[in-house]
Design a protein that fits this description.
This protein has about 725 residues and is an alpha+beta fold. The chain contains 18 helices and 29 strands. A hairpin with a 5-residue loop joins strand 25 and strand 26.
């Protein structure tokens, strides 16, 4: 026999060609080769499936099937920890693989939920994830009890070993018998006081693969016979394709076909296709070059008359019009404001903002006679199955989505957050070959689902003690077709959800129709309006002669968890208002995803107006924290994400199209601009389970803006900060 050396990438290519399902595998602490099986949802040949979530090999290796995506948030590690805690197995014996989305869909949502968004993986899914481990543990104990002739209560399960008196055995020995056990009732899951693994800092298990380059993303997929497609939709979203001249480029090297993609009338949701044109070639460079050279005409329609300036003008006009949506309506608030001797009023604005994921939008689809294979970086792989099945009008049972790492999500890939998966399916169907669709960075930013443009006016009446007697607020956001919300998020969330003890409160909101496709972004709602609300809180406090941090503590006396967070911030950050000119500290606190997050920023502003964010102190109360290491990383990255957009980002719209669509004009935080971030957990515990992937972001821009005021005396009421003159004398 001859021995051949096969690279990881070559292995993926050859097995994909054979029609197999792709499952990425990990072993702790050393990387294990990717595992691929004809039926990735089935138990490995050498192991036994105890339940849908896990299988156990004879050597006591436990294979955990993770139904959630890994986009850098530590989902693989979090799910593994939750199950392993209850199973009581040696951490070094854990191997994780991605659960099969086809199985999930085919078996009526067998994994409960596959979506990974909204900081909900641990927050909402921990009960059934932990139960999967607890149920398997009790089945193993029951199998051993029957074999040894004892009661299950007499059997101990610990670190992969079962024991009772003189009897002992491994999980691997009893896995087959445990798979046949049916429990009379499922066990209760552990309380935090009983945790052994959870609550301890644990290194993420995906990191070694990302360091050594073996991690695979959807963009990496190569399928034998695969061709490439470059795509252009109307520069003004939802515009019409008037004409294109494929004859002008069809004889270029490698060019195979042009495929027109058509929007379905009335279908304008996040994963729906817009009118677009694609060029297919044997390499992506050839496809893109031909597409750029091909004459194409678009009809933007009325959208071609819109601009950022126009939308802001309309938003300002609406600030004088009572909104049709009233979430808090206390008539006394308006009366008190009108009669008050001292009133503070300010308007705040944020433009459209884009996700700007590091992995450009892409998808690969292979349409075959009896099955379809899909590689798409969505935050819900089961949605990829359903989207492709719908686009091709085939049975979802014949569609197999292969979960890969995501090169960023931030809400933009939620349930197939763009039409790229449908595009790839349609093009593969028409050309009869596997197709990789890859958007250029310009197409990515221009056709992304954007964070909506928003305007808000906030007014407060100040009493004799310097505290507010009433708060009246109004917001307007510009969403696709005037959408009211995305999930639970609305553009006024950070304002309408303020927990301060205002004696009287009124709030209303306008939902304004825009042609710009819109979607959730990391910490939706709380991100934009959190900046506005918490900046204005400083304005109220200062107008009343209060230290802004002491004001927040005073106005949350009725909320013990806020008191815990704010007093911890005061202790850890050492907030001051008397730094020399050019230096400043600012604070902000926003609650979102069940977590209270407070921030204190320290900044330097040169006389020329150059901003440096020296330090950010973050204090979080999520109730319970299962992995402080990953939670800290998420807080740091949330600050980086939010400051990228608030300080440096912001899309510019002109004639219905975005004009700054690459990283030379839509800036993200550079390494030298990233502040030091100190993260502290002030956990209230109990039954509170908050999210930690997003909440640290929203208070950060307000903290910086408030610090800028102390450093320069200039109040920043719009983003990005970089467009403001911060110079001082």
């Amino acid at each position: 026999m001859s021995r051949k050396t096969l690279s990881r990438r070559a292995f993926i290519q050859s097995t994909a060609a054979a029609g197999g399902g792709l499952v990425l595998g990990f072993h702790i602490p050393v990387a294990r080769a990717a595992r691929i099986e004809a039926k990735p949802w089935a138990a490995p040949a050498e192991g036994v499936e105890v339940n849908a979530w896990l299988a156990i090999e004879p050597d006591n290796t436990v294979i955990l099937r993770i139904p959630h995506t890994e986009m850098g948030q530590g989902g693989l590690t979090s799910v593994a920890m939750l199950i392993a805690e209850e199973l009581d197995v040696e951490w070094g014996k854990i191997q994780t693989v991605f659960a099969d989305p086809n199985r999930h869909v085919r078996n009526n949502n067998e994994y409960k939920v596959m979506s990974t968004h909204g900081s909900q993986l641990v927050r909402l899914q921990h009960p059934h994830l932990m139960l999967a481990g607890a149920s398997a543990r009790e089945r193993l104990k029951e199998a051993a009890a029957k074999a040894w002739g004892v009661e299950r209560s007499a059997v101990t399960a610990k670190q992969g070993t079962l024991s009772s008196g003189t009897h002992a055995g491994t999980y691997g020995e009893f896995a087959a018998a445990a798979a046949r056990v049916k429990l009379d009732r499922e066990p209760a899951i552990k309380t935090p006081a009983e945790w052994k693994l959870l609550g301890k800092p644990t290194q993420r298990i995906d990191i070694p693969h990302k360091v050594d380059g073996s991690a695979q993303y959807s963009i990496d997929i190569r399928v034998p016979g695969m061709v490439y497609a470059a795509v252009k939709a109307s520069p003004a979203p939802w515009g019409k394709l008037k004409s294109y001249d494929f004859d002008a480029v069809k004889n270029r090297p490698g060019v195979i076909a042009a495929v027109e993609l058509k929007a379905v009338p009335g279908k304008r949701d996040q994963p729906d296709m817009q009118n677009a044109i694609a060029v297919v070639a044997d390499t992506w460079y050839r496809a893109r070059t031909a597409l750029d050279l091909m004459p194409v005409e678009w009809d933007a329609g009325d959208a071609g008359k819109t601009s950022t300036a126009g939308y802001f003008a309309e938003g300002r006009r609406l600030m004088d019009v009572k909104g049709p949506l009233v979430t808090k309506d206390d008539p006394k608030a308006i009366e008190i404001l009108a009669a008050a001797k001292k009133v503070v009023t300010a308007e705040y604005e944020r433009p459209f903002e884009t996700h700007a994921r590091m992995e450009p939008i892409n998808a690969t689809v292979h349409v075959q006679k009896d099955r379809v294979d899909v590689w798409s970086p969505t935050q819900d792989q089961s949605s990829a199955v359903l989207l492709v099945a719908d686009q091709l009008k085939v049975d979802p049972k014949t569609v197999f989505a292969h979960t890969m790492f995501l090169g960023g999500g931030f809400g933009g890939n939620g349930a197939g957050g763009t039409g790229v998966t449908r595009q790839a399916a349609e093009i593969s169907k028409q050309v009869g070959r596997p197709v990789k669709v890859l958007w250029t960075r310009e197409e990515d930013l221009a056709q992304d689902k954007q964070r909506p443009l928003a305007v808000a006016r906030l007014s407060a009446a100040i009493g004799d003690n310097g505290l507010p007697t009433a708060l009246v607020t109004r917001a307007a956001w510009f969403t696709m077709d005037g959408a009211n919300q995305f999930g639970s998020a609305t553009a006024d969330y950070g304002i309408s959800s303020m927990s301060y003890g205002f004696p009287a409160r009124h709030h209303d909101r306008h939902n304004v129709a825009s042609h710009v496709p819109s979607s959730t972004h990391r910490a939706p709602g709380a991100n934009q309006m959190g900046f506005m609300a918490e900046s204005f809180i400083d304005e109220i406090a200062i107008a009343g002669g209060w230290n802004p941090l002491d004001w927040r503590i005073e106005m949350t006396k009725h909320l013990p968890d806020y008191q815990l967070v704010l007093k911890t911030l005061k202790e850890k950050a050492g907030f001051r208002t008397d730094l020399p000119k050019g230096q400043g500290m600012g604070v902000g606190v926003v609650e979102s995803h069940g977590t209270i997050a407070a921030a204190c920023a320290t900044v330097n502003v040169s006389k020329r107006g150059e901003l440096t964010i020296e330090k950010m102190v973050i204090v979080l109360d999520a109730g319970n924290v299962i992995n402080p290491h990953t939670a800290t990383e998420q807080a740091e990255s949330s600050v980086c994400w939010e400051m990228s957009h608030a300080w440096l980002g912001g899309l510019e719209l002109d004639r219905g199209r975005f004009t700054n669509t690459n990283f030379d004009s839509y800036n993200l935080l550079r390494l030298h601009q990233m502040p030091r971030v100190d993260v502290h957990f002030a956990s209230s515990g109990g039954t509170k389970w908050g999210g930690l992937g997003e909440p640290a972001g929203p208070p950060a821009p307000a903290a910086v803006a408030n610090a800028i005021w102390y450093a320069t005396g200039k109040r920043v009421r719009s983003t990005p900060f970089i467009r403001h003159d911060l110079s001082w004398a």
